[in-house]
Amino acid sequence: MGAGGAARPRPRTPFAWLADRVVLGRRALSWGTTAALLVSILIIVTGAVVRVTGSGLGCPTWPQCEAGSLTTTPALGVHGAIEFGNRALTSVLVVAVGWAIVAAALQRPWQRTLARLTWSQFWLVVVNAVAGGITVLVALNPYMVALHLVLAFALLTTTTLAWHRARQSAAATEVTGPARPLAAVLTAVTAVLVLLGTFVTGAGPHSGDSADVPRMGVSWTLVTAVHGVTAVLTIVLAALLLVLLRSGGAATALARRRVVVLLAVLGTQALVGVVQALTSLPGGLVVVHLLGAALVWVGVLRVLLDTRPTLFGGVVPVRDQAVDERADASAVVR
User: Fold this and answer.
1) What distances in angstroms separate CA 239 from CA 36, 178, 179, 248, one per listed residue?
2) Confidence check: pLDDT of 234 > 90
3) Exposure string for 84-104, b = 16+ CB within 10 A, e = fewer
4) Which of 96, 98, 126, 196 could form a disulfide with 227 if both were Cys (CB 3.0 to 4.6 A apart)?
5) DSSP of 47-72, one letter per residue?
6) Full-prediction pTM beyond 0.85?
């Protein structure tokens, strides 16, 4: 899709033969992208559960859970069940992403950006699964664990972009003035905040298995302090963006609401972080903090897209009226 929102000719994709016969309504696309987004968040949360329960090597090998068995066995106990449950969730994620891919491929008019975003999700699932396997094979090397988490957030990025684009109104307008570049700066700082979080985790006490698992060779106190300062900077930038958007009138109303929600999530996340630091990082709060990190990242991406609607492929074009009238149907067969 070009900058002007016009649909491009559909290339010969794996679903081209089906696209000539079947058109899926916007509801199918909406549900598919929603499922992919929710499961991509859930897999981050369950990964945190694996870490804080010491179940990272609950399945001691990969791709099998243990030698001779693809699934967990009673001998592996609760740790095996937790680790295998996280692995099994990848299958659910593949189904959700597959649904989004097919729904995006069978839209009319076809949108190149959505198609690429959904396919990128599939490849990121594959890469992250391999990274997870390597993480087990190298006995939870903390840098490999951090890369595994960064890849999970990369997947969350694509599922968020696709989810947002599938719902974006064709009437969305660009935000002008200093709020526009500030939204980009806020996104960049939030990305640094998330990345620093992986170092806090990698240097902290929750290794994912036993005390013998090595930790990152950085000062946990120092990296935690830097992470905290970056979190404060993120909140300040979001608050400043809200102030700038207040002068934009009706055109910035949606972006303002997004920033208010983001500030609420950031405030909650900061409170959880402080409680963690004061209570020696209890496992339950670590899981909550990872969930908060995922929600913060989703929130800041939505702020970015609402201030710059043409970013990453442009505004969703107005659909063919005849197709829209049948959008609630599961499919339109030619």
Assistant:
1) 30, 14, 11, 15
2) yes
3) bebbebbeebbebbbbbbbbb
4) 196
5) HHHHHHTT-TTSS-SSSSSBTTBSS-
6) yes
